[in-house]
Design brief:
It holds the Pfam family YknX_C. This protein is an alpha+beta fold. It folds into three domains: about 90 residues, conserved putative lor/sdh protein from methanococcus maripaludis s2 fold (Beta Barrel); about 90 residues, Elongation Factor Tu (Ef-tu), domain 3, CATH 2.40.30; about 130 residues, OB fold (Dihydrolipoamide Acetyltransferase, E2P) (Beta Barrel). A six-stranded antiparallel beta barrel has the order 3-12-15-14-13-16. Strands 4-11-9-6 form a four-stranded antiparallel beta sheet, with no helix packed on it. Strands 8-7-5-10 form a four-stranded antiparallel beta sheet, with no helix packed on it. A hairpin with a 2-residue loop joins strand 13 and strand 14. Helix 3 packs antiparallel against helix 6.
């Protein structure tokens, strides 16, 4: 019996040490063997380059006509002719409306008669001073001539004729600039008063987009800087523009108004909403494609490749233009960075570079 117990204890001890050795063998299995069993993640890559980087400043605003003039009827009368409609294009100097000229023409006729009468009176009065006018004394002759013109009423008649001619001319309202008619206020046949507005004329040669830019970006903008403009109604077509003005004050929202002149005005109207993209080149920036940037626990990460494995790099991000991102710290220039399949990628994961 004692012998049997000894044999049983020996067998149990042998089994215990054998299991322990097996466990130790499992624990001692190299991690590399597991890594070799994991399939490499296929990734696309790019190079982190130091180059000029276009930072894009986006802003939305409203279009305005570069020139806008109010056409004013300067004297009272009946509007007997209206040659324009809203939206119609006119050229500078074109007659857009006419008032009844009857009264103005009568005043002009009277002024012309008054001038002739005054001139006849002046010539008659000169006959009494033939000796002086035939003499060579120019100073005395000019003095007498001035006196006679004043006494005959010739000076006043000339002024009254100019005034009558001006009033007659005001019966025709001409376009002060080339552009399009807007806000027409009267119809043909209306009785209008002096100095009343007939319409607005919006210059059609150029338009201005006024946008609001963050004060933190205003140092990157300067006059004549190029801009791309997209109207909200046609966001596919790019319109070339340039910065022509920067308001020298910041509003209560921390925004600065910037004016962008647009070279093309096709299919654009004042009051339309539009978006401006102002390019601000940044020299010698370390740049990676935006797809290379991922966020882990709220921190920016870029994966690079070393020895066919992914390397986790915490980075500090600068400006972003929608396609590329500026890297301020955390990545070496000319690093090969991963741009695809990096959302769930781990540090030191095996990777395989693929090409399109």
């Amino acid at each position: 019996m004692i012998k049997f117990r000894c044999i049983l204890l020996g067998f149990l001890a042998l089994s215990f040490f054998s299991c322990k050795n097996d466990e130790e063998k499992v624990e001692e299995a190299p991690t590399e063997s597991f890594r070799n069993e994991v399939a490499a993640t296929e990734v696309r890559v790019a190079i982190a380059e130091v180059k000029s980087f276009d930072y894009l400043i986006n802003a939305i605003g409203k279009l305005e006509a570069a020139s806008q003039v109010t056409a004013v009827i300067e004297q009272a009368g009946f509007l007997i002719e209206l040659n324009v409609t809203e939206g119609q294009s006119v050229e500078k100097g074109e007659v857009i409306a006419r008032l009844d000229p009857t009264e103005a023409q009568l005043r002009l006729d009277k002024a012309e008669i008054s001038l002739r009468n005054a001139n006849a009176e002046y010539e008659s009065m000169k006959l009494g001073y033939e000796t002086i006018f035939n003499s060579g004394d120019e100073a005395q002759k000019n003095a007498i001539e001035e006196q006679l013109k004043a006494k005959s009423g010739l000076f006043m008649a000339e002024v009254e004729l100019k005034e009558a001619m001006l009033n007659r001319a005001r019966c025709e309202l001409k376009a002060p600039i080339s552009g399009k008619i807007a806000d027409l206020k009267f119809k043909e046949g209306s009785l209008v008063g002096a100095n009343q507005e007939l319409c607005e004329i919006l210059g059609s040669k150029q338009m201005i987009l006024k946008v609001k830019v963050l004060e933190s970006d205003i140092s990157l903008i300067s006059p004549n800087q190029k801009a791309e403009v997209y109207s909200i109604s046609n966001s596919q077509n790019t319109i070339e523009g340039r910065v022509i003005g920067i308001n020298p004050k910041v509003d209560e929202n921390g925004l600065v108004q910037v004016s962008v002149a647009i070279n093309s005005t096709a299919n654009l109207l004042p009051g339309m909403n539009a978006r401006a993209i102002i390019r601000a080149p940044q020299n010698n920036s370390l740049v990676v494609p935006k797809d290379a940037l991922v966020y882990r626990s709220g921190r920016a990460v870029v994966f690079s490749i070393e020895n066919e494995e992914s390397k986790w790099n915490y980075v500090e991000v600068g400006k972003d233009n929608g396609e590329e991102v500026e890297i301020l710290e955390g990545l070496e220039p000319n690093s090969t960075v991963i741009t695809s399949n990096n959302l769930q990628l781990a540090h030191q994961a095996p990777v395989q570079i693929v090409k399109d």
